[in-house]
Amino acid sequence: MAIPELQSDAKLTIGSKQTRLALENNQAAQVFIAEDAELRVVKPIADICQKKGIPVIKVVSMRELGKACGIQVGAAAAAVIK
Fold this sequence. Notes:
It is a single chain. The chain has a 4-stranded mixed β-sheet. The longest helix is centred in the middle third of the chain and has 14 residues, at 39-52. Helix 3 (39-52) links the parallel strand 2 and strand 3. The protein has one domain (4-81): CATH 3.30.1330.30. It is an alpha+beta fold. The protein is 41% helix and 23% strand. The termini are far apart. The protein has helices at 4-7, 16-24, 39-52, 62-68, and strands at 12-14, 28-34, 56-59, 77-81.
């Protein structure tokens, strides 16, 4: 499945740590979370998004999210930067 927001020229953060950092710095406009990622990894990200009103889009797998971001490995989360 192609994810147009991630395949455009938009600036991205890839990975749970970088995505969380972007959220904490109010830089994320939209967040993508892999449904098969460990809950302990993605729940804090989802909680911050809910608190700040940032849209979260679920992606079927980490592998699919990584591929959509243009990397060769899976990713638990990614964000489009404002």
